[in-house]
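Q: Structure for this?
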Amino acid sequence: EIVLTQSPGTLSLSPGERATLSCWASQSISSSYLAWYQQKPGQAPRLLIYGASTRATGIPDRFSGSGSGTDFTLTISRLEPEDSAVYYCQRYGTSLPTYTFGQGTKLEIK
Amino acid sequence: EVQLVESGGGLVQPGGSLRLSCAASGFTFSDNYMNWVRQAPGKGLEWVGRIRNKGGRYITEYAASVEGRFIISRDDSKNSLFLQMNSLKTEDTAVYYCARDFYYKSDYWGQGTLVTVSS
């Protein structure tokens, strides 16, 4: 079973700075199968990025995804207070489990 | 506008059963695969299972943690998704989300319904 490991666990940055969130897969995965979600307290997750680098509908261009193989990155430029949230990477698999999530990175905006 | 609304959560004793529902609107429900995802209090997201559409022969897939205890079904005539949960354990306590599956991702999510398993 492929495991996704996210780092750091918590990230504390100031408005206007850039956040770099990492997601490592225990085995190589197709970029088509890697997505990122944002979850704010008390809310459902929201799709941010799919196919490793394609922004979902309505997602501002401050959010970008990159990577391939086992190393993937979510970058948030020009941080805003509303970006405070937990961010999860997710991988689709052709064998069970169909979907696997990373443990999440909590982003705090000072 | 796509909407997914879960219902049916509540307090249940260990060993008990509960059936969750998810009402879908704003898209052609019958065309889509659908997921259930859960989140234990203060924890991360855990995929529970998925049901394919008619073209996918309504095949269901489950996480190992719920295989044999949970059953996913759907009623395309009512745009509804269901999660039958049996032999519930305290570790099944979580907010349960339904989400639309669309090409290797979940692009729309409901607001979730809380299931508490406790004596």
